[in-house]
Amino acid sequence: MKVAVLKGGGGLERQVSLRSGGRVEDALVALGHEVLGIDVGEELVSTLKRDRPEVAFIALHGPGGEDGTVQELLEILRIPYTGPGVRACMRSIDKVAAKHELRAAGVPTPEWAAFDSRAFRELGAGEALEEIEAALGFPLVVKPAAGGSSLGVRFAASAEVVPEALVAASSYDDRVLFERHVEGRELAVTLLGGIALPVVEIRPREEDCFLYEARYQIGRTEYVCPAELGAAQGPVLDAALRTWDALGFDSFARVDLILAADGPQVLEANAIPGLTDTSLMPMAAEAAGLSFEQLCARILELALSRAEAGGPPPRRP
Amino acid sequence: MRDLMEITARPEVISLAGGLPDTSTFPPGSFARQMTKIAQESSAQALQYGPTEGFAETKECVREVMRAEGMDPDLDDIIITTGGQQAIDLVAKTLLDPGDVVVCEAPTYPGAVPVFCSYEAETIQLAIDEQGMIVEELERVCDRLAADGRRPKFVYSVPTFQNPAGVTMSAERRARLVDVARERELLVVEDNPYGLLRYEGEPDPPLYALEGGDYVLYLGTFSKILSPGIRLGWLCAPPPVMEKVVLGKQAADLCTSTLTQYFVREYFAEGRWRSYVEDLCGIYRARRDAMLEALERFLPAGASWSRPQGGLFCWATLPDYIDTTDLLAKALRENVAFVPGAAAFTDGRGGSSMRLNFSASSEEEIREGVRRIGAVVSEQVELFGAITGEHRLSGDRGEDEIPPGDVLPFRR
Questions:
Q1: Residues A190, A300 share a domain
Q2: According to the per-residue pLDDT averaged within each range, which of A60-69, A145-154, B235-244 is highest?
Q3: Catalytic residues of A
Q4: N or C: which end of chain B has fewer CB within 10 A?
Q5: ipTM confidence score
């Protein structure tokens, strides 16, 4: 089968995407497919129209690739693609929109407040920081509404450092999210075809939080899979599955959550989780007995069966 | 940060992040003539292995370059290396054992620290000011180490037009450093890639010239005065060190490219290398001026920057609530790039600083690049002001005016 692997792009997670894409290409070649690697740029549409792949494997991360844009284009070109559809991508890329959906669906997620930087410039939102800080407490997590890989995420231990954290987060996205810091175990649940794979627990080694550099350097973070959750296993999987439903996922998703003393709290869901050799989705698949090649094969299968069934959740008559 | 830096290579990005000299100014006709001559007259030799130390003729060219800066080394004290970077590596390989201490400047050349780390050395970074390394600090560090029965294996310094800070060590500090080296029998590794790229002011003698070459090892390169693509640098060291360096060089790559050594020989024989350096200085001076003007015009109050008299870099420091690694993400959306200051420190300092290169872009690109950087910085300054209701300037620096000359205010 002729498979286009979409990777790279101009976003901040370009290198991660190239690593994901490169690994997927190797796996697809080993599976006997004809692989067309595309570093996504201005010529994406013309390349796709010329080469007409039978399916597109999306290995893009962050805005552009994970927000529904590329997915929309592929639908218009009638090329089946891997991963969730446009709607789930749009809802999950924006952490604030996702949290609203989760709350509406009754899925526990840490308390938050979010502002566009314009609110600070034009509406004097700075005056409301005191109330936010009082409502959410310290330490406070400050992060850009869009984007992944922990880029721009800061932990503010006191009111004094909140403005700096806000300036840092706003470098990545105009909208900034303030979130209550929930103490607990950090977990990632990968759902493949709506079925939960073994849960990964993330235990940072050197840093006190899970940041970009630590995330992609082998040995910087310790992972346990399957995580030993005991009685919490049920509630954790339940929270992940309800997140899947609330955001309208299909194909796959990775739900990141904190297991606090009083149960799980969902932080976010990723539409295109990383596929690098330190990424969590391949780790979970391996724990379920799926090699990386088998994981890629299953992902392709999900894309094709969705296309056969008439595409992702209906959006055109 | 490494991942962000990779994005700076996109063609639509105005990159003030690199450290590249402008090789487009080298006359292709001259290049063709020399290579043709080599092919016609010395083809077999130029394609052959050469001596590990380098050809005597290449060393003569090195001596010519060093004489231009007031040094006159013995040819036996010179080894030709594969770029200046290999010279750093050979020094480290020869001298360092795991756990040794290397003292360098803060900030320092970001490419040197990984070399020291790869030989499992510990680096100590010394604060510098507008006159370069603070030698009293060095003495204090030596005393502190001595209390534990330790001493630095060597001091690594770029005293002239420092990368990344752009500052130059004063004559007084140079003299003092040389005295300290002699008194304490301390090796100093002087890295001088930019010395001949001077756009104003009078040069001070290199440490190597002042000291005589017993305690100062000297690293030079043809990269900035001719071409980095030929990968030719050199190291000057006294005989006992040189013996070991030669063994290390042999193990690393047997010899430096014969072909490019022939090229340098022919190029120097034409006798125009100095005028080419003068041409480069003219071009870079105009680009430096364009950068300084643009910084003045586009960076908001609270920012400060060095005014280098030569070299390739300006070092700008923003209000301390701006982290330049995060800012780079925002700058990249505007298609402009710089090197975040934290890259030049091993200890998390430098977070509000950035290195800006002016040799690799046209004056127009420099103005536009700095304008874009100024716009994203201003946006962050404005946001901070809107959040806090104050327009706080950087920590312990309140002055808005930019001091004249080679001045660089550093936070300690």
A1: yes
A2: B235-244
A3: 13, 149, 216, 254, 256, 268, 270, 274
A4: C
A5: 0.82
Contacts of B25 (CB under 8 A, 6+ apart): B279, B280, B283
**For residue A315, what pLDDT is reported?**
42
Smallest Cβ distance to A121: which of B6, B386, B389? B386
pLDDT digits (tens, 9 = 90+) for B66-111: 999 999 999 999 999 999 999 999 999 999 999 999 999 999 998 9
In-domain check, residue A311: no
d(CA B282, CA B330): 33
pLDDT at A87: 93
- Higher pLDDT residue, A215 or A99? A99
Q: Are residues A192 and A161 in the same domain?
A: no
A189 and A176 share one domain? no
Instruction: Write out chain B residues lying below 8 Å of A167, CB-based.
Output: 321-323, 326, 380, 383-384, 387
**Class of B28-269 per CATH?**
alpha beta
Closest alpha carbon to B341 in B360, B322, B358, B359:
B322
In a domain, A316, yes or no: no
A266-297 residue pLDDT tens: 999 999 999 998 899 999 999 999 999 999 99
- What gap in Å lies between CA B185 and CA A173, rounded to an integer? 54
Q: Under a CB-based contact definition with an 8 Å cutoff, are residues A115 and A125 in contact?
A: yes
Domain that holds residue A45: 2-82
- Residue A30 pLDDT > 80: yes
Query: Using beta carbons and an 8 Å cutoff, which residues of A are at the interface with B?
Result: 10, 12-16, 117, 120-121, 124-126, 129, 151-152, 162-164, 166-172, 212-213, 216
Locate the chain B residue with the closest alpha carbon to A211. B1
Where are the CATH 3.90.1150.10 domain residues in chain B?
2-23+275-388
Dist. CA B235–CA B240, nearest whole Å: 14
Query: How buried is A226 (Cβ within 10 angstroms: 0-12 exposed, 13-18 middle, 19+ buried)?
Result: middle
Give how far Cα B324 sits from Cα of A168, B267, B336, B338, B391, Å.
9, 42, 13, 9, 18
Residues B332 and B339: their CA atoms lie apart, in Å, by: 12
Phi, psi of A197 (to 5 degrees): -90, 170
What pLDDT score was predicted for residue A148?
65
- The CATH number covering residue A228 comes to 3.30.470.20
Residue range(s) in chain B whose domain bears CATH number 3.40.640.10: 28-269
Q: What is the pLDDT of residues A31-47, one digit of tens each?
A: 999 999 999 998 999 99
Closest Cβ opposite residue A163 in set B3, B327, B387 = B387
Enumerate residue ranges in chain B where pLDDT < 70: 1-5, 7, 390-412
Query: What CATH number does the domain located at B2-23+275-388 have?
Result: 3.90.1150.10
pLDDT attached to residue B400: 41
Chain B residue with the nearest C-alpha to that of A18: B3
Task: Please check whether residue A312 lies inside any domain of the structure.
Answer: no
